[in-house]
Specification:
The protein is of the alpha+beta class. It has 2 domains: 4-160, MutM-like, N-terminal (N-terminal domain of MutM-like DNA repair proteins, Alpha-Beta Barrel); 174-298, Helicase, Ruva Protein, domain 3, CATH 1.10.8. The chain is built from 6 helices and 12 strands. The strands form 4 sheets. It has a 4-stranded antiparallel β-sheet, covered by helices on one side. A 4-stranded antiparallel β-sheet has the order 2-3-4-8. A hairpin with a 2-residue loop joins strand 2 and strand 3 (62-66). Helix 1 (4-18) crosses helix 6. The longest helix has 20 residues, at 226-245. The radius of gyration is 21 Å and the shape is globular. It binds a DNA duplex through residues 1-3, 32, 35-36, 61, 76-80, 95, 121-126, 184-186, 190, 193, 195, 202-203, 252, 254, 292-295.
Length: 321
DNA sequence: CGAAAGACCTGAGTGC
DNA sequence: TGCACTCAGGTCTTTC
């Protein structure tokens, strides 16, 4: 599932291929992928065709391509979205929902003059849209944009405005995050998945970071002390960074980079998908519980609340598979 | 108002 | 072989 590292791999792949190019045409194969497009200002195609792409920016799991019109093409991969760079005329990918034909008109462009940017999405949880841009409230860059520069770096698409900064963002405020945790009345994992508090983290990296920080997913956020908060942030940054270096986590063909290649971080997972196997730290058998309509994976011996294991009843655990 | 639950999706896997 | 059912989870919407 694309979380921050996977989306960043896509951003880094798209940026050099499309920066400076003009959108020459679009094809929409499935209108559901435009669910997040607000057509008040114009149709998706009308707002896109003829516009020049200025860069590629990411905040959390949201990706956007700023346009010379002052708007941006916003891309969210959802559960199964992919952005694939193809040569014009190439056979359609399965689950192709939207295609952009882009053309480099600059004389000094190093890559191919024309290419297709295919938005492929099996489960249709992802989307593309053209959105208006607004200055960030803190005045810092809106997200990570590689070496991009221009006024657009300080502008945020309106549908991303409620998304918090991610922990790899230099403008991420540790203090703001800790204050947010103290204010909340919920468990730590639910808070990590709340993109308005901290962005970029999904089910896999939430489980991995909580394991690294030795925290149980149901520990109340308000009860975390300073050391636990620090350990959690350290774990989050370390895991996200390592996953990024390894090209993200792939279990199947549902996540690939812009060239269709898989990442390698799945080999480095300590708890996610490892229920029934021994904990690498203490040897206890790892457990999977259903939580928030998804799986929570953890070590019942070393991920505890306030020094005491939460595994009060063995019947709460699913049998190892 | 915040927290939690439900809706949206499709293909792989399972049981009969 | 085929059919019904379950599971995977990010985000938006609805409900409490």
């Amino acid at each position: 599932m694309p979380e921050l590292p996977e989306v960043e791999v896509v951003r880094a792949g798209v940026e050099p291929a499309v920066t400076g190019a003009v959108v020459a045409g679009i094809e929409i194969f499935d209108e559901r992928s435009l669910r997040r497009h607000d057509a008040t200002a114009g149709s998706f195609g009308d707002l896109l065709v003829g516009r020049r792409i200025l860069g590629a920016v990411r905040r959390g799991k949201f990706l956007w391509l700023p346009l010379d019109s002052g708007r941006a093409l916003v891309i969210h991969l959802g559960m199964s979205g992919q952005v694939l760079l193809r040569s014009p005329g190439q056979t359609d990918d399965r689950h192709l929902r939207i295609r952009l034909a882009v053309e480099h008109t600059e004389s000094d462009s190093p890559g191919p003059r024309e290419l297709w940017l295919n938005f492929v999405d099996q489960r249709v949880f992802g989307s593309m849209s053209v959105d208006s841009m607004h200055p960030t409230s803190d005045g810092f860059a809106a997200g990570y944009s590689g070496r991009g520069e221009g006024e657009w770096t300080g502008l945020l698409p309106s549908q991303v405005s409620h998304i918090a900064r991610d922990p790899l963002d230099p403008a991420f405020s540790d203090d703001l995050f800790r204050a947010g945790l103290r204010r909340k009345k919920t468990g730590i994992k639910r808070a990590l998945l709340d993109q308005t508090l901290i962005s970029g983290i999904g089910n896999i990296y939430a489980d991995e970071a909580l394991f690294a920080a030795r925290l149980h997913y149901e520990q109340p956020t308000a009860s975390l002390d300073g050391a636990q908060g620090d350990a959690l942030l350290l774990a989050l940054r370390s895991i996200l960074h390592r996953a990024l270096v390894e090209g993200g986590t792939s279990f199947d063909a549902q996540y690939v980079n812009v060239n269709g290649q898989s990442g390698y971080f799945a080999h480095s997972l300590e708890v996610y998908g490892r229920q029934g196997k021994p904990c690498s730290r203490c040897g206890a058998i790892l457990v999977r519980q259903t939580f928030m309509n998804r799986g929570s994976h953890f070590c019942p011996a070393c991920q505890v609340v306030d020094g005491a294991p939460v595994c009060d009843s063995a019947t709460r655990f699913q049998a190892p598979s």
